[in-house]
């Protein structure tokens, strides 16, 4: 699994320090991993320090936004997600959750060890267009960041400044038809954390 900025991937994150084989009464594993690992969610404190200090952490995210009807859409494969791309998708008004499948899925980037800065994501103008012209409150995408590498912080600022949009990143969208689903995303209840791994499932 890739890890942000790493050429060597996530590496070992799970150990078995206590095992029946070494004389313990039961097997008890331990794990250690960054909170923005694999499929994960961003809280506003991820990029805004005043929100971090104010306690806008994972536990403050709205579970009603993280669970409900969602559209899976295929993004044109030749571009990052700009305002023009957002217009071309013709997402109906009233849709609150959209999962964006991109070239990242075709390239199987989440299956590669080395972090790839050429992944597809939102440019600032695409994020701004989404915020100003749609009712979307959950943005899901198929790599470790919803924001393109070249517009990393500007796009995050646009999405998270209003504290109304939740970013779900690192989705596995292989072999799923575009269309309407029910999505269920549950982060760990990590008080004080600006991100969390989560289990996210689609039900047709």
Largest sheet: 7 strands, mixed, barrel
Give the rounded overall mean pLDDT.
97
The percent of residues in helical segments reads: 10-25%
Structure annotation, total helices? 6
The fraction of residues in strands falls at 25-35%
Radius of gyration: 18 Å
Strand order of the largest sheet: 3-7-6-5-4-8-9
Low-pLDDT runs: none
Write down the overall geometry.
globular
* Secondary-structure content class: alpha/beta
Could you tell me how far the N terminus lies from the C terminus, measured between alpha carbons in angstroms? 27 Å
Secondary-structure element order, as H and E?
EEEHHEHEHHEHEEE
Description:
It is a single chain. Helix content is 20%, strand content 25%. The longest helix is centred in the middle third of the chain and has 10 residues, at 124-133. α3 packs across α5 and α5 packs parallel to α6. α3 (83-89) links the parallel β4 (67-74) and β5 (97-101). A 7-stranded mixed β-barrel has the order 3-7-6-5-4-8-9. The protein has a two-stranded antiparallel ribbon with strand order 1-2. It is globular. The chain is built from 6 helices and 9 strands. It is an alpha/beta fold and 204 residues long.
